[in-house]
């Protein structure tokens, strides 16, 4: 009985770390970084840090932001997280036009392709929907409460994306599942029709990404705690190909990292044409590039762009207009750090398109800080500090803690046979007759 | 842990073949937590369900897996969710001898009992009861891992746990959320049968099904002639108990329909 108590205390007492996130405006107008409760936006057209204003009447983020997402047209940005708030920002004025309060912590957020609805998933696996329909002033009627449209039974939703044609909404969870749901014309009545389940991951699914439409069809990529990236025909729920990233990383990772049983995929970002996928992997200092063949329906390992030893990206983003791959590293709740000092590191890979491979041998694959658009101004705005390199050790320890925290949240507890028997014996409502 | 989710997986093993197991050796808690993480093996996808373990007569071991028979390979068509001691399966088996059916049960001892019961019935009635089996699983979490889209023609939810407290309503096996998944694994025209002796739960299950756009009520005249309906209240141990005590039952029988876009 004793160690049961210990174990439970361990779980609830563990500090929860949230990875730093990055999102790029689809037209390249701006880039947003979320770390802890902070949302930092840099205006790439005006070349200045954005100061956000909030006239929605709601409170501002007070706990880790877990998800940020631009609408397809770039007019809106949604942010949501552990403080149970979902905030909708207008990207022209960077005003918060709406603050929605969730009953539970929010783990994923997405805006429908037509920009009319925002969906968010709570930590119990329920997906909620709110209408963003607005009158002339961009104001929304007050009685517009979230409605639940479907759910994954008692699971944590890790990622939620709309298909490029807006017909489907895909949700990934910690129970190895990806559900593809028909997004109906009137979603306020719920989304009961399941198009498919994409089943094949043998651990939690951490991220999903749709390729853009090409020739009328698109594909879904997913990454998971089982160190795989998978390619799906999501209409039929068919697994087309699996790429085991672990073997590819094995040679490159630090020697002390190889003891990891699994290298979880942290994020996937696709080029606009969907032919190239950038993959962030826990413990990999760099980004892995995979080719995505839409004709043969195959994934192929291309190369790893290695970064400095301590730089392990937690999130990736790119916009369809510019060929920049934004990578960010960091986490909330840094130990021994004041809240005002939430450090992140931003690095940019230029020419994020298919010919990246051809040219990369001749020129550096990663922009130096001086080569970054708007240079120090941008870095100061998004990183919070310029001399992050001096903080490498802090960042490294944060990432280690983040990994443990993710693992605790998403990986199923595995009790040994003896432990299970022991727990059973501790039960006082069963008579043993053996 | 080895996979023991097939009916041939053995179990208590103390009784001779053909002899029915005795329930007193398989006592279990009446309730099990559907929210807890499961430690028993779950098939990654429906392709991994080991049918040959469950229905050896339909999937003889000597037949090659990548064989030619794949086209005609039968699939599980009925699912009894929360099958308990398996009374319904045993009742259904002779009525639909060509349909594969599976009971899904969360409590390990009860699952063991049903396994033994099926093996004993097969041994004492050669050629019968080959179409029923049981699997230990949490059907509230893993239905899509067992069945493909539109695979099932009947689903049964007999005397499920009522979970009276409002905070536990999300543990009920019929809910708007879970009906999405049941609708997914059921073919259009398939029928979902629910019955309970708890009026409150009966109203709940009926209202969930009525609200759900992928189900419609089966008309009374059809219910009257459906040979399955009589079994709902008579075949299971729970049903017999209710009948013994002269209790009332509440059933809701609905058909899977395709979505009507207005």
From TrEMBL, chain A:
Domain of life of the organism encoding this protein: Eukaryota
Localization per Swiss-Prot or TrEMBL: Nucleus
InterPro entries with a match to the protein in the record: Trm82 (IPR028884), WD40/YVTN_repeat-like_dom_sf (IPR015943), WD40_repeat_dom_sf (IPR036322), WD40_rpt (IPR001680)
Compositionally biased tracts (Basic residues): 422-434
Pfam families (UniProt xref): WD40
Disordered, as annotated region: 415-434
Pathway: tRNA modification; N(7)-methylguanine-tRNA biosynthesis
Biological processes annotated in GO: 7-methylguanosine metabolic process; tRNA (guanine-N7)-methylation; tRNA modification
Keyword Nucleus recorded: yes
WD repeat ranges per the UniProt record: 58-99, 198-242
Any one Gene Ontology cellular component term annotated for this protein: cytosol
Subcellular location, principal: nucleus
Keywords annotated in UniProt: Nucleus, Repeat, tRNA processing, WD repeat
Family annotation (HAMAP family): TRM82
Family: Belongs to the WD repeat TRM82 family.
Subunit structure: Forms a heterodimer with the catalytic subunit.
Function recorded in the entry: Required for the formation of N(7)-methylguanine at position 46 (m7G46) in tRNA. In the complex, it is required to stabilize and induce conformational changes of the catalytic subunit.
Official protein name in the record: tRNA (guanine-N(7)-)-methyltransferase non-catalytic subunit
Lineage, highest ranks first: Eukaryota, Viridiplantae, Streptophyta, Embryophyta, Tracheophyta
Gene: LOC100845342
Automatic annotation (TrEMBL), chain B:
E.C. no: 2.1.1.33
Renumbered residue ranges of the record's region Disordered: 1-20
GO cellular component, one term: nucleus
UniProt keyword annotations, A-Z: Methyltransferase, Nucleus, RNA-binding, S-adenosyl-L-methionine, Transferase, tRNA processing, tRNA-binding
EC class (word): transferase
GO MF terms held by the record: tRNA (guanine(46)-N7)-methyltransferase activity; tRNA binding
GO BP, sorted A to Z: RNA (guanine-N7)-methylation; tRNA methylation
Protein's UniProt keywords contain tRNA processing: yes
InterPro entries found in the cross-reference section: SAM-dependent_MTases_sf, Trm8_euk, tRNA_(Gua-N-7)_MeTrfase_Trmb
Subcellular location: Nucleus
The keyword Cytoplasm appears for this protein: no
Active site feature: 161
Binding, S-adenosyl-L-methionine: 82, 105-106, 138-139, 158, 236-238
Pathway: tRNA modification; N(7)-methylguanine-tRNA biosynthesis
SUPFAM superfamilies, per database record: S-adenosyl-L-methionine-dependent methyltransferases
Catalytic activity: guanosine(46) in tRNA + S-adenosyl-L-methionine = N(7)-methylguanosine(46) in tRNA + S-adenosyl-L-homocysteine
Source organism superkingdom: Eukaryota
Function in brief: Catalyzes the formation of N(7)-methylguanine at position 46 (m7G46) in tRNA.
UniProt name for this protein: tRNA (guanine-N(7)-)-methyltransferase
Organism: Brachypodium distachyon
């Amino acid at each position: 009985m004793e160690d049961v108590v210990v174990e439970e205390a361990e779980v609830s007492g563990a500090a929860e770390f949230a990875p730093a996130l990055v999102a790029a405006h689809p037209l390249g107008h701006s880039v947003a970084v979320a770390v802890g409760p902070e949302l930092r936006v840099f205006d790439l057209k005006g070349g200045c840090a954005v100061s956000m204003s909030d006239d929605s009447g709601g409170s501002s983020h007070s706990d880790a932001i877990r998800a940020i997402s631009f609408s397809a047209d770039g007019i809106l940005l949604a942010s949501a997280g552990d403080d149970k708030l979902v905030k909708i920002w207008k990207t022209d004025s960077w005003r918060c036009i709406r603050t929605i309060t969730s009953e539970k912590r929010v783990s994923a957020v997405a805006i429908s392709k037509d920009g009319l609805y925002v969906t968010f998933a709570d930590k119990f696996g329920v997906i909620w929907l709110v209408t963003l329909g607005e009158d002339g002033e961009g104001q929304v009627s007050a009685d517009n409460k979230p409605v639940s449209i479907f759910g994954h039974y008692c699971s944590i939703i890790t990622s939620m994306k709309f298909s490029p044609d807006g017909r489907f909404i895909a949700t990934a969870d910690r129970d190895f599942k990806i559900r593809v749901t028909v997004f109906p014309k009137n979603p306020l009545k719920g989304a009961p029709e399941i198009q498919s389940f994409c089943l094949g991951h043998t651990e939690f699914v951490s991220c999903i990404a749709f390729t853009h439409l090409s020739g009328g069809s698109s594909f879904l990529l997913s990454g998971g705690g089982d160190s795989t990236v998978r390619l799906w025909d999501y209409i039929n729920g068919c697994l087309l190909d699996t790429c085991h990233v672990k073997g590819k990383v094995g040679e490159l990772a630090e020697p002390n990292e190889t003891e990891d049983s699994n290298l979880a995929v942290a994020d996937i970002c696709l080029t606009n044409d969907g032919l190239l996928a950038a993959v962030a992997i826990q413990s990999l200092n760099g980004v892995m590039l995979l080719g995505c063949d839409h004709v043969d329906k195959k994934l192929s390992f291309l190369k790893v762009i290695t970064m400095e030893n301590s730089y392990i990206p937690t999130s990736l983003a790119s916009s369809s207009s510019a060929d920049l791959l934004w990578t960010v590293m960091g986490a909330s709740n840094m130990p021994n750090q004041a809240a005002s000092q939430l450090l992140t590191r931003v690095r940019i890979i230029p020419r994020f398109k298919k010919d990246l491979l051809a040219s990369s041998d001749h020129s550096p694959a990663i922009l130096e800080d001086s080569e970054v658009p708007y240079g120090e101004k941008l870095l100061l705005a998004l990183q919070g500090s310029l001399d992050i390199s001096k903080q490498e050790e802090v960042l490294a320890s944060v990432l280690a803690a983040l990994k443990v925290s993710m693992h605790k949240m998403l990986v199923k507890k595995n009790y040994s046979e003896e432990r299970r028997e022991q727990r059973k014996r501790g039960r006082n409502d069963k008579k043993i007759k053996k | 842990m080895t996979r023991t989710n097939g009916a041939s997986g053995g179990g208590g093993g103390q009784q001779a073949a053909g002899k029915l197991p005795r329930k007193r050796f398989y006592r279990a808690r009446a309730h099990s937590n559907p929210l807890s993480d499961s430690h028993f093996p779950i098939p990654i996808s429906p392709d991994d369900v080991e049918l040959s373990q469950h229905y050896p007569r339909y999937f003889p071991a000597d037949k090659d897996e990548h064989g030619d028979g794949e086209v005609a390979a039968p699939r599980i068509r009925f699912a009894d969710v929360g099958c308990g001691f398996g009374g319904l399966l045993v009742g259904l088996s002779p009525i639909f001898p060509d349909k594969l059916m599976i009971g899904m049960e969360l409590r390990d001892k009860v699952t063991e009992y049903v396994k033994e019961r099926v093996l004993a019935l097969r041994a004492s009635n050669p050629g019968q009861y080959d179409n029923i089996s049981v699997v230990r699983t949490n059907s509230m979490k893993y239905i899509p891992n067992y069945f493909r889209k539109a695979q099932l023609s009947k689903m049964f939810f007999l005397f499920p746990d009522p979970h009276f407290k409002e905070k536990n309503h999300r543990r009920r096996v019929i809910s708007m959320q879970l009906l999405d998944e049941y609708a997914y694994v059921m073919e259009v025209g398939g029928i979902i049968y629910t019955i309970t002796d708890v009026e409150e739960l009966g109203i709940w299950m009926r209202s969930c099904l009525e609200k759900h756009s992928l189900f419609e009520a089966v008309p009374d005249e059809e219910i009257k002639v459906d040979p399955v309906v009589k079994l709902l209240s008579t075949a299971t141990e729970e049903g017999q108990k209710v009948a013994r005590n002269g209790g009332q039952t509440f059933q809701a029988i609905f058909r899977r329909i395709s979505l009507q876009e207005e």
